[in-house]
Design goal:
mainly beta; 4-stranded antiparallel beta sheet
């Protein structure tokens, strides 16, 4: 992650746990960060194996990393988050000594997707959960919402956790009001779901059940909320090398004013290449004068 001033922070793992390194703009380790440029702390204090997947840099310079952590001899993987101060020390005001964990099922294997931080500082973590750890039951799409201090936000779905049986999440976005927008795959159906800040299906979205159908015949892979309530979904065409964007109204209907009057645009990434096998992600977008560029 690039930071102000040209420094770059990288997250990963070592044999001992999670690791975070900060580099100066000339590529040298930053000695003002944790003394030697590297902070390596386990996501939990007991024997564990930690895997870091992504991170978020706050405007004040604090760093949130997230990943998966084993729970010692109990087995399974749980979500693990750690927050660091700008100097590389763990933030004692977050979780327990700077670390917070979330579990959906004892012994289950939880695979983290990404993290969203709202304007109010609350944290939403998305991923999947294999409850028995061996694939014997359907994988669930799972979401956890934490308060800024790392404690569960019990105003969200009762205990801060939301579990969608049979769905695999492909993208998610957090609106300014705390509404959660999610694209999922359920069997062979691509769905768009919206949840209120309390974690309930949004009755104002889709058919009144919080579910809107996706553009037919595509594989959704990311979603971006736009300032005026509309949102865009990135997709790929399973039968070709084409990728594209579809724009939707706030209620989940396709926005027919976008594209050629059908609500979407497609791009051939490289003519003559095989059908796309990878997902398409929205990495940067500019919203200017009502246009996505």
């Amino acid at each position: 992650v690039a930071e102000a001033g040209g420094t770059v922070t990288a997250a990963g793992q070592t044999l001992g746990g999670a690791a975070l390194a900060r580099y100066e703009n000339d590529g040298d380790l930053d000695p003002t960060f944790s003394g030697n440029g590297i902070a390596d702390d386990p996501l939990i204090s007991e024997p564990s194996e930690d895997f870091v997947s992504s991170g978020y840099v706050y405007p004040d310079g604090k760093i949130l990393i997230l990943g998966e952590t084993t729970l010692g001899e109990r087995g399974g993987f749980n979500f693990g988050l750690a927050r660091y101060n700008p100097d590389g020390s763990l933030d004692s005001g977050f979780g327990s000594g700077g670390v917070a964990t979330v579990s959906f099922s004892p012994g289950g294997f939880e695979s983290i997707g990404n993290v969203l931080v709202g304007d109010d500082g609350k944290i939403v973590v998305a991923g999947t959960n294999d409850p028995d750890g061996v694939g014997g039951v359907a994988v669930h799409a799972v979401f956890a919402k934490l308060n800024p201090d790392g404690s569960p936000d019990t105003s969200f779905s009762g205990d801060g956790r939301l579990d969608i049986l049979g769905d695999t999440p492909t993208g998610n976005a957090l609106r300014a009001d705390g509404t959660l927008l999610v694209t999922t795959l359920n069997g062979g159906s691509e769905l768009i779901r919206q949840f209120t800040p309390a974690g309930d299906p949004d009755p104002a979205f889709g058919g009144g059940d919080g579910i809107a159908p996706s553009l037919a015949g595509v594989g959704n892979s990311d979603v971006l909320a736009l300032p005026e309530g509309k949102f865009v979904v990135a997709f790929r065409m399973p039968s070709s090398a084409d990728a594209g964007l579809a724009r939707y109204l706030a209620n989940g209907d396709l926005d027919l004013s976008f594209g050629g009057g059908d609500g979407f645009v497609t791009i051939t990434v490289k003519p003559g290449t095989p059908p796309a096998a990878d997902t398409v992600k929205i990495t940067k977008a500019t919203w200017k004068s009502g246009l996505l560029t």
